[in-house]
Amino acid sequence: MTVRWDSPETGAAAAYREIKQRIVNLEYQPGEKLSEARLAAELPFGRSPIRSALAQLKSEGWIEVSPQSGSFVKALTDREISDMTSLRVMLEMHCARIGAARMTDADLAKLRSAFATLGPLADNGDGEAFIEVDTVLHLALYRSTDNQMIAGILLDLRDKVQWIRRACAVSSERVKEGFAELKPILQALLLRDPEAAAERMRIHIESSAAFCRMVDHTASRRARFPTGIPG
Amino acid sequence: MTVRWDSPETGAAAAYREIKQRIVNLEYQPGEKLSEARLAAELPFGRSPIRSALAQLKSEGWIEVSPQSGSFVKALTDREISDMTSLRVMLEMHCARIGAARMTDADLAKLRSAFATLGPLADNGDGEAFIEVDTVLHLALYRSTDNQMIAGILLDLRDKVQWIRRACAVSSERVKEGFAELKPILQALLLRDPEAAAERMRIHIESSAAFCRMVDHTASRRARFPTGIPG
DNA sequence: ACTATTCAACTAGCATGTCAGTTCAGCATC
DNA sequence: GATGCTGAACTGACATGCTAGTTGAATAGT
Questions:
Q1: If you placed Cys at A126, which of A13, A121, B2, B129 could pair as Cys (CB 3.0 to 4.6 Å)?
Q2: CB neighbour list of residue B186: distance below 8 Å, 6 or more residues apart
């Protein structure tokens, strides 16, 4: 990225990480106003790095900036979630296909061990364990696909999915179900069956998306049309 | 998605457009240094909007910023071009599939007329005519696919492709060839054959990518992306 | 009670100045 | 000539103050 790959993190980058994390963790809720001044007071940064961070968050779709008015945490519309899902399905299926063909035996062994360790917890509805094993599986696929651009998009979408997951409470039932969807993916990878892996991945992504719908729509509508909803 | 739909373009946005256009047009060549001060002197903007514009260009991969040193126009590596092509193939094939199924007769009629008007020129090797009809075809497909996230990615990749096209001189032979690849795509769309449209699109994207290789004019130290997928 | 107007507080956009890190031409040394 | 050192010029990161646009509650008018 930069010439100095060991350079210390700039304030702007640190502010970006911090604010984004607070958004994902719902400490800053959808629709909430995030003014530069407020953030500069709340965080150990001046207005300049905060401003840079907000610009990046805006370009990545986490917030909306209204000139001379304020910055607001965005709420994803059903439409955006649906768009996101289509894209994820396509890219994740691609990664699953490639992964089934190219993943090394060492990677597969690591996956198997992760499933063995965390599986029993996930089977009991442990959300954190599920997220952990889900993450291990997907990152391994991104790595074996070896396409930075696709990986970058999927990592970004993953953050958004985490966000949505927190916005709609996830039942332990859904956790068990989700983990049950992961198992056949691993099986297909072990059998090096690209089409089966892709198909199981499709099922996994689509069913996880079906459960997610963002809660706070009113705040977003208020933020977007403060003087009244047109029409 | 801001509150003010009719708000005038900010200086930062105008600077972004201008600088990006100059990069795509090779007025600023790959590897060239673009300091804030220089751009502020060269363009009718102060350092602040220039700084915002550079931040956005950085996050979109057009430039690299080296702290306390300078901003440089990025040169795409063969690897990045290859990554880009894989992604484009996948997404464009998806759009072609959806387009073949969902495109309206009115849209198809417009496409046919565009081919009729510009086709003879493109057949003679007219690069501008080819780009025009190519753009019309692809944008129509993006529109019919009706997924803003995918369309956004493809539009960005399209800018990069235009950039690469200028970086490697395109022969009129290649123009004729490229246009010849578009015809079967239109045919497949008219026949509403999704698989044929997707397959022809794949051929089109891959063959156009095969001709492009970027030249870094400075060829000096160039940092690679050291960050991989963690895990 | 209800609407229209006003105005003070608040907002992001931007200019400008400062600062610390980077760079490289030119000098010193071998 | 080759190598190491120095310092001045340059760079992006950031702080700060100002401006113009936005907002919403208090106010005036009906």
A1: A121
A2: B111, B112, B115, B137
